[in-house]
Design goal:
Blueprint lengths: L1 H27 L7 H14 L12 H9 L3 H8 L3 H21 L8 E11 L2 E12 L5 E11 L2 E11 L3
Helix pairs in contact: 3-4
Keywords: Signal
Protein name: DUF3887 domain-containing protein
Organism: Adhaeribacter soli
Length: about 170
């Protein structure tokens, strides 16, 4: 009987641990963007709706940053050692708010603009997972403006990283 209880307890603990892993994997599925275009669309939608929370799914967590650290150059690793998911979020949120304030002061109406194109280029040959992203937006008169940011790719998913900015020039 004691053997049975012991085996049952071990089996129960194993099943519980497996279930927790499955739940973690399921919660991470859909984390990040599958394509750079999806990430650009998410940034544009968040700006149009003035809702930074629309970007929550595209912000890296500690697992993503650890994976990036492992695959980065030595100098980038030094920067990433001081980078946490909270610092990424806080910096991007501050830049998002600044962009929205600047757009409001300039009487910029996001709803009059549509996404035209998203283009990503590698930022640094030493760090091939980092990208500079330019999201072109256009109005009905074919005027263009650009939303710029940095992103990285880990496990075939794209995440926002830093330097969210808005400009009418490239």
């Amino acid at each position: 009987m004691k053997k049975f209880l012991f085996i049952f307890s071990v089996l129960f603990l194993f099943c519980s641990a497996f279930q927790v892993q499955a739940q973690n994997a399921a919660s991470r599925q859909g984390h990040g963007a599958a394509t750079m275009q999806e990430l650009g669309q998410a940034v544009f939608n968040a700006l149009q709706q003035n809702q930074f929370s629309g970007l929550d799914n595209f912000l890296p967590d500690e697992t993503d940053l650890k994976a990036l650290r492992r695959k980065s150059s030595e100098d980038m690793r030094l920067v990433l050692e001081r980078t946490t998911p909270d610092t990424v979020r806080q910096n991007l949120q501050k830049q998002f708010s600044f962009m929205m304030d600047r757009a409001s002061a300039g009487m910029f109406n996001w709803s009059a603009w549509t996404l035209a194109a998203t283009k990503a280029t590698r930022k640094d040959p030493k760090n091939p997972l980092l990208y500079k992203v330019r999201v072109a937006i256009a109005d009905a008169a074919a005027n263009e403006k650009y939303v710029l940011f940095e992103a990285f790719q880990i496990r075939n998913r794209y995440f926002l990283f830093k330097q969210l900015d808005f400009t009418s020039e490239i």
